[in-house]
Write a structure and sequence with these properties.
Length: about 650
């Protein structure tokens, strides 16, 4: 921070850092940091912020330390409220661990050690974490066998964050390659870690069938280690192998196998069907809209001070309003004109740059994708229906974008709870993709949550506006997004078992007919044309909101009202600024989380005028669907194995 002053200076003049809401009468003892100016007329100081997140400002206090003579622009400090840092190298069979937690919190705070990918079973060890501590020595449990582990921070049974991957192996070995477990299911997430004393630039990790001669050509998956001595690689178990096949990871250097993991047995999912639905929720309707952050929709609905992290849960005073400034810029007003006139950049590369290591600091400057129009907030007059839903029902103020990147990538988490591809790299080889090159088209074989439901006779349906029109002219290259149905927006169309399956894929016109005739599936996904999807550049917010309301009104005025849960969500944040730092990158697929999304839970089962602070994402919906309709909530063995459920948003009594 630079300062200069022209009037008379005093030895008692000082610079202080304060929350922007702190009274101007606050002195040194109430500051977050301060330093004397030593009566100099100008200067530069650096401050290493150790304070909690929030909106702050520098103040020059002069006239003998009595008067605030100048204030800086507001500074947003978007720190994660919960963090765990662990020295990854074991010294004398001990880790050094530190963590942070917010000052205001409810419930029992504890940290546990788990194998990566393990469900919330009993941890190998646990300890209380009632306050932030540093450099705490933790003994490695004697029961911990070789493998990959992580520490997780919980509030009661709510997962808040987790550490990076930790390795337990043979400390005498120069090369270690470790996996969390020795079995998984088709499509299950795979994580492998390596630790070497010496690495070459072209060393690589490969996944192979156990009887295959290792080479780049025979690898089921491979990734170069780029000369790093330690790290992790993420993939999924191939679904095309015979049941009970064995696969193995090899560390390759100079075309030779240097080390191998324990074999991993891959089996089909044994779907555990339930004899009855667990709750009174017999139907779930998911309305998927596009490309807005929480701040862009609800930054003017919420009224709590930015950075205050409220723990209350009733009404707008229990979620944080958007900041007044970002990098000295005020937000633009997000109305129908602004939404249709500008589409923020939102590729994975751009969102990684703009989130800037989870500081959220590069949306309007300091990044090639930055633009002052990436910072826009809607008013109630633009989103009256959504504001009314927020007042009447439940919203989640920590529903995070599943992965930094574009729409299709995030759509896939609603089907698989895992990364399938980056950005919009692939489109399904189905009806509705005539406008794309054939080289971009692909279908996958991994199991989805829809396959699990159908295996247990739980009905499932996808309703796409304009589907029948395109189906009747599948090769017409003039029928393109946003005015026509586009299959790339529909996650379940990417899978062989579901693509254009007439028993589950319907035109949107059938939704009202199915409701009227009593044929509404147990789980439904509903999407509009791009012109009503709220997608910036293609749709007005009003048209998208009316589409959502049409579905909500149809359900709530029908016989399905008291047995249906309605979820209105955005597929991703669309490159719009949000002031909350995302939660830590997980160890399941290694994809960084993105900005918060404005998700509303509506209808009979939603808590009333409720704000949930539980960290969730699209994979949490996949988990809840399994929990409600099946015997078990983590069949896919992807992110569904560890994310929080949606229970906090719901009134299930």
């Amino acid at each position: 921070m630079k300062w200069s002053i022209e009037q008379q200076t005093f030895n008692s003049d000082y610079l202080g850092l304060y929350y922007s809401t702190d009274p101007l009468t606050y002195g040194k003892n109430n500051s977050l940091w301060w330093t004397s100016t030593n009566s100099t007329k100008s200067g530069t100081v650096q401050t290493n912020l150790q304070s909690p997140n929030g909106v702050m400002e520098y103040r020059y206090i002069g006239n003998g330390g009595k008067t605030v003579l100048a204030r800086s622009a507001e500074i947003i400090v978007a720190l994660q409220p919960y963090t765990i840092d662990v020295n990854p190298f074991i010294t004398n069979k001990r880790w050094t661990i530190s963590w942070t937690c917010p000052k205001s919190k409810n419930g029992t705070q504890w940290i546990g050690l788990f194998r990566i990918g393990d469900e919330r079973t009993a941890p190998l060890m646990r300890f209380l974490a009632s306050k932030s501590d540093e450099n705490v020595a933790v003994d490695v449990p004697t029961a911990a066998s070789s493998g990959l582990y992580e520490f997780r921070y919980y509030t009661d049974d709510i997962l808040q964050t987790y550490s990076s991957a930790l390795m337990i192996g043979d400390a005498t070995s120069d090369v270690q390659i470790l996996v969390p477990r020795n079995s998984t299911v088709f499509g299950g997430a795979l994580t492998v870690g390596w630790n070497v004393v010496h690495a070459e630039p072209h060393d690589w990790i490969g996944l192979f069938s156990i009887d295959e001669k290792p080479s780049l050509e025979t690898a089921l998956f491979y990734q170069y280690t780029k000369g790093k001595l330690q790290g992790t690689v993420h993939s999924t178990a191939p679904s095309h192998l015979p049941p009970n096949s064995q696969i193995v990871w090899h560390y390759m250097s100079n075309n030779m196998v240097v080390a191998s993991s324990t074999p991993i047995r891959v089996s089909p999912i044994n779907v555990k069907c339930s004899t009855k639905i667990k709750t009174a929720i017999k139907h779930i309707v998911v309305i998927e809209q596009e490309n807005h952050s929480f701040d862009s929709f609800f930054g003017n609905y919420c009224t709590a001070e930015t950075g205050s992290r409220p723990v209350c849960t009733s009404g707008p005073s229990c979620c944080e309003k958007s900041p007044s400034y970002v990098n000295q810029y005020k937000p633009r007003i997000l109305d129908d004109f602004e939404n249709k006139d500008f589409c923020p950049p939102h590729s994975a590369e751009c969102e990684i740059c703009m989130t800037n290591q989870m500081t959220m600091s590069n949306y309007v400057q300091n990044c090639s994708c930055a633009n002052v129009r990436n910072w826009a907030v809607a008013k109630e007059e633009t989103l009256p229906i959504y504001f009314e839903y927020a007042k009447k029902y439940a919203i989640a103020d920590q529903w995070y974008q599943s992965g930094v990147g574009a729409s299709s990538m995030n759509d896939m988490y609603l089907a698989r709870a895992n990364m399938v591809f980056i950005d919009n790299a692939v489109v399904p080889d189905t009806v509705g993709t005539a406008c794309y090159s054939q080289s971009k088209k692909k279908l996958f074989s991994d199991p989805t949550v829809a396959d699990l439901l159908l295996a247990c006779n739980v009905s499932f349906g996808v309703y796409g506006e304009g589907y029948d029109q395109v189906k009747h002219s599948p090769n017409d290259t003039s029928m393109c997004y946003p005015h026509y149905y586009d299959a790339s927006d529909y996650a379940f169309q990417y899978y062989h078992s579901l693509a254009d399956n007439a028993s589950i894929m319907f035109d949107y016109s059938m939704f009202a007919k199915h409701v009227a005739s009593g044929k509404l599936p147990n789980v439904s996904l509903v999407r509009s044309l791009g012109t009503k999807s709220e997608h910036p550049g293609d749709s007005s917010l009003t048209d998208g909101m009316r589409f959502s309301k049409e579905i909500v009104d149809l359900i709530t005025s029908s016989s399905y009202n008291e047995e249906t849960l309605i979820v209105i969500l955005q597929d991703e944040s669309g490159g719009y600024f949000d002031h909350y730092a995302p939660i830590t990158t997980n160890n399941i697929d290694g994809i960084a989380y993105g900005a918060r999304l404005p998700v509303m839970v509506v209808g009979h089962f939603a808590k009333k005028s409720y704000v949930s602070h539980v960290p969730v994402e699209h994979s949490s919906l996949v988990k809840f669907i399994q929990w409600n309709f099946l015997e078990y909530d983590a069949h896919l063995q992807t992110r569904d194995s560890f994310v929080n459920n949606l229970h906090d948003l719901l009134d299930l009594v």
